[in-house]
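Continuing the series of single-chain predictions for the mutant panel. This is the parent chain; the variants come on the following pages.
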Amino acid sequence: MVEIWKGRLDSFQREDLRFWQIITTALEMEENSGVCFVGYNTDDGVNRNQGRVGAEGGSDAIRTAMKSYPIVENVKLYDFGNLENKKLEEAQEEYSDKVKMVLEKKNFPIGLGGGHDIAYASYLGLRKAYPDKKIGIINFDTHLDMRDYSEGGTSGTSFKQILDSDKEAKYMIIGYKDIGNTERLREEARKNNVVIIKEEYSDEYIYEEIRKFSKEVDIIQVTFCMDVFDASIAPGVSAPTILGLEGKRAIKMLKKILETKKVAITDIAEVNPQYDIDNRTAKLAGNIIYEIVQSKSS
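Parent structure:
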């Protein structure tokens, strides 16, 4: 893990410092001090969902993309490392326990995936830390991921699992496309009152829907499936999207969500370095994460 974080060295003076020079392990975590990365380096769920595998390497690809970023003042960085267990159910349990520990230290966990089954694992960690809070999930994704899980979870079942187990939870999807979802999945979404935001909706409409959604929950989980983005900027995913979401628009939406001050966790899913080009997808994930880290400086 230490080797992954070695990056560009200008000097050890404060004004020249980069992520790799200040990040420490979760064992050194101080209370209410910053951000902790939690690796979810498994694509067992992707394989079960008949997707193209390779997202297991996403956690370290994102770390590599971030290692030379300039530090953000007043934000300490920690890394909880990667998984010991790669089987989906065991991985979700291990990851959720780590998330709970980060939250109990009053720090902000950022999950690095891995398949989008990380979303259910993030929810489990939130619920363990906040058993009485009303949780809202905002998913940047082309796909609803509300498939049947009667034969076990996959990367495409997270949100049905959440909504089936927690009738108080609320779910919004941003970047949804009809072309990526069957009528059965759409019916499941209607049945669960999912707030569906298509990519072509206006920014003003989306911002208003974010505002209304945030008022109805106590805390928010933001999850990014990187296939929400156009394949030209995110080719390294399990299921590339043509005419997907533009990166700058997504970051503007993310900022609106962060302004609610209710976001408790973020995770990034489906970074697949085997199919990436010039590390575009990992770098895009890193840009998203940097916005979140900057939001913690004030």
